[in-house]
Design brief:
This protein is mainly α and 85 residues long. It has three helices and no strands. The protein has one domain: Ribosomal protein S20 (Methane Monooxygenase Hydroxylase, Chain G, domain 1, Up-down Bundle). The longest helix is centred in the first third of the chain and has 36 residues.
Length: 85
């Protein structure tokens, strides 16, 4: 257990950040999953879901939830998936 007041504050801050990071990560997964399902089912709205997936990936990378190289790789794979469909 934290003893000093600064350590206690660090715990509070990390709990708050954890909630935001989990929210960003779940938004990332939800948007990419919706896109991949649309592409797999050859749905016409897959092209409209791609910008939303890119936005979620960029937001996660901006806040260091995922690294920028991981974000770039994910975006490239999603674009390639749409092109192949």
């Amino acid at each position: 257990m934290a003893i000093t007041s600064s350590a206690k504050k660090a715990i509070r801050v990390s709990r708050k950040k954890r909630v935001f990071n989990l929210r960003r990560k779940s938004a990332l997964y939800d948007s990419t999953k919706a896109f991949t399902k649309a592409v797999a089912s050859k749905d016409a709205k897959a092209a409209t879901l791609l910008p939303a997936a890119f936005e979620a990936i960029d937001k996660a990378a901006k806040r260091n939830v995922i690294s920028k190289n991981t974000a770039s790789r994910k975006k490239a794979r999603l674009a390639r998936m749409l092109k192949a469909a």
